[in-house]
Amino acid sequence: MTAPVVVTGIGVTAPNGLGTGPYWEATRIGRSGIGRISRFDPSPYPSRLAGEVPGFNAEEHLPNRLLPQTDRMTRLALVAADWALADAGIKPAELPEFDMGVVTASASGGFEFGQNELRALWSKGGQYVSAYQSFAWFYAVNSGQISIRNGMKGPSGVLVSDQAGGLDAIAQARRQIRRGTRLIVSGGVDASICSWGWVAQLTSERISTSEDPDRAYLPFDREARGHVPGEGGALHILEDGESARERGARIYGEIAGYGSTFDPGPGSGRPPGLRRAIQLALDDAGMVPDEVDVVFADAAAVPELDRIEAQAVSGVFGRRGVPVTAPKTMTGRLYSGGAPLDLAAALLAIRDGLIPPTPNVTPDPAYQIDLVTRARPASVRAALVVARGHGGFNSALIVRAPQAGGV
Amino acid sequence: MTGRRVAVTGIGVLAPGALGVKNFWSLLSEGRTATRGITLFDPAPFRSRVAAEIDFDPAAHGLGPQDVRRMDRAAQFAVVAAREALEDSGLHDGALDPYRTGVTIGSAVGATMSLDEEYRVVSDGGRLELVDHTYASRHLYGAFVPSSFAAEVAWAVGAEGPASVVSTGCTSGLDSVGYACELIREGSADVMIAGATEAPISPITVACFDAIKATTPRNDEAAQASRPFDATRNGFVLGEGSAVFVLEELESARQRGAEIHAEIAGYGTRCNAFHMTGLRPDGAEMAEAIRVALDEARMTAEDIDYVNAHGSGTKQNDLHETAAVKRSLGEHAYRTPISSIKSMVGHSLGAIGSIEIAASVLAMKHDVVPPTANLHTPDPQCDLDYVPLVARDWGTDTVLTVGSGFGGFQSAMVLTGPERRTA
Amino acid sequence: MNEIFTLDDLRRILREGAGTAEGTDLDGDILDAGFEELGYESLALLETASRIEREYDIALDDTALADARTPRDLLEAVNARLRASAA
């Protein structure tokens, strides 16, 4: 039996709330952060809604020297990491450097920083490219900057598997703790709401063109028409359960199980891999489906993908066998930040005995899932988070309530 | 699942001047260099105009016009290398169990060539602040999120287990294979198609390294431009390429009678938590990564026969690395040959760690240590045995290969020959 | 041309390209303060040099840059180039 790995701190930067408190307050009552894009003029484009993190002023939170060398996603990530550490009651300077690591997911890197430098290159010339471009846009930047800011020299890493990456990172953090590292900062934050990032996202052909923030992102609804992209995400403090208990840490929950699969190639005729990922996560946790009290869905809002997810969930848990929710309809899909934010919601649902809603959606009965459209009080002992990435990445993670008397 | 070990049973390599494993070893063992003036675009406006490029004809490697349109050059490299590795392992033609086979591909800068070119088009040469979506390729999303590299490889080999891209800067190629080993050891997969790829020779990448003077301006001596550990070194030479491996759980590989090229005995990664591009001169974090890798391999410094260096050829790196190797191997560092193949194939960022693993496995296979080309003027501060210019016959059963990257990542891997640890 | 690169020009470019470290008063007497002491490492100086080169249309050589330990050193190096290009 391997020792449990637990979450002791949460840091959130979400479109419907900056900070864990504001995010959860909005999420539990179904208040959305989706609106018309303000970070650039979206009028030339067929899609104009996004989930933007409100009121984030990096200067208030970060040293001035960091600003010229960081993309928005890195600034958000650094602040989320600070908040997660504070929430966990951890002062990194007091712990051995090699006992702390950082494992994040990334999807598209610092795309807005890259946009500005590409523009400088092509409009003015190579000598106008910033000395910080060599790292400010790349996928490893958040892990690197968080490790530097907090003096964390332990095993670190970066995984890229689109929206599934957020769970893959958490699972990798758990592996490193099991191998002997005491604490890992893990999760993901992305922010690519810039003109260039927007055009790239549009080519997925999965972005809703609705102009109505309440009708744009409707997974499992007959009117599903794609998703709304967002920015932000969450970082978590994962710790070895034993040492967390010894220091008297407040424990949100245990990372109990994880599974990951990849869909077969197009046209193969083989079944999709999502159900298998869920089953692997259950097996890994040593749990049976009945022990899971809520599913945080991937919620693609593309009819074919919704059908696959509904079938995977009902295949494992039975028809309408488990409450399903998708609070990401209030934030948009956050790429590598999406699943870590769902993990935050799952941990808070466990804490408060409340399943947050999927507002505005009228579930299509054909899917035969119990979609939670209004916040539902419930005893939540374990939650499943599902995340899928473009191209066929499927990941599933189970988080379990802390056991009485510690874990 | 304790006690599961990881064997390398297939190798595929695409390196500058060397398509395929056989050609790659010829280039290394003959000490030839593949660095030259950049031909992939007009480098005239840039400070550093040399690179190690691949003369790559996708059609000759079985890629169709649609594959080429859909995939970034780096993804094409990875698919070609993965196919060579799979064939080499004997697991082609439906012999893989899809559910028990995963994919990890390392890359530091993703689809940077596609992004650079796409941006140029949708911004109309940088003129438009709001870029024009009507000119965007419908495959742009696959460049936006480079997990598409892992997806392409998974489709090419028919893998349906865990799949991901690992992106830890210039240690991606080591970390991707290290990650794959962990998945096999814990039982999440029995076979991993693992490696790395990079095709970074684009104007934006060249410009960003120009801006920090990390690449060499030795443009008039392109073939001798990459000079790791030499006193005259003044920056690295950008490269491109891919190496992909078939990794298998050792027992099942033996049972099916596979040829085992090597075993991955240990791996470690640490961060310097110091600077995004800078290195502390003492090499303490790389030394710690080496210690972790040796511990996992249950070996000591004296077991290492050859150190395959990061050896990028920047002033700072080569000193840092020399310090790290001394710090971790002690007196044994002075007795152990150490060399940098970046002197020949350049520095392909996220890919090079995997390409160096391939070189390490081949060094054991042939009992030959590849040389550090262009090392004519020893740097008194780099005082180890860097195997200058000419390959050396050397009984090599155990190799330590190391990497160092932007973001502060320091990684190390210990590989052993198939005979070494039959116990 | 008779352009002179002043300490105020340097202050502005440092602020734009590299920001200001906590506890550093760039408006103070910094002429002979070490860049490291002011919170600027090699990357910040590379970015600063690159901005100076673009704005003043000069090329600073690598050694002059590497040898500049203080604002005074950098001002001298830049003004030497400006005089050379005006000559």
Which terms would index this structure?
heterotrimer; A: 407 residues; alpha/beta; Peroxisomal Thiolase, Chain A, domain 1; 2 domains; twelve-stranded mixed beta sheet; two-stranded antiparallel sheet; 12 helices; 16 strands; globular; B: 423 residues; eleven-stranded mixed beta sheet; three-stranded mixed beta sheet; Thiolase-like (chain B); 3-oxoacyl-[acyl-carrier-protein] synthase activity (chain B); acyltransferase (chain B); transferase (chain B)
Instruction: Give the number of domains of chain B.
Output: 2
* Computed CA radius of gyration of chain B, to the nearest angstrom: 20 Å
Spatial extent as radius of gyration of chain A: 20 Å
Number of helices of chain B: 14
What is the CATH architecture annotation of the largest domain in chain A?
A: 3-Layer(aba) Sandwich
Proportion of residues in helical segments of chain A: 25-40%
In CATH terms, what is the fold-level topology of the largest domain in chain B?
Peroxisomal Thiolase, Chain A, domain 1
Roughly what is the average pLDDT of chain A, rounded to an integer?
Answer: 97
Bin the strand percentage of chain A: 15-25%
Q: In whole angstroms, how far apart are the ends of chain B?
A: 18 Å
Overall helicity of chain B: 25-40%
Explain how this protein is built:
The complex is a heterotrimer of chains A (407), B (423) and C (87). Chain A contains twelve helices and 16 strands. Chain A has 407 residues and is an alpha/beta fold. In chain B, strands 1, 2, 5, 6, 7, 9, 10, 11, 12, 15 and 16 form an eleven-stranded mixed β-sheet that branches. In chain B, strands 3-4-8 form a three-stranded mixed β-sheet. Chain C is mainly α. Chain C has a single domain, classed as Non-ribosomal Peptide Synthetase Peptidyl Carrier Protein, Chain A (Orthogonal Bundle), CATH 1.10.1200.10. Chain C is globular, with a radius of gyration of 12 Å. The model of chain C has no long low-confidence stretch (mean pLDDT 93).
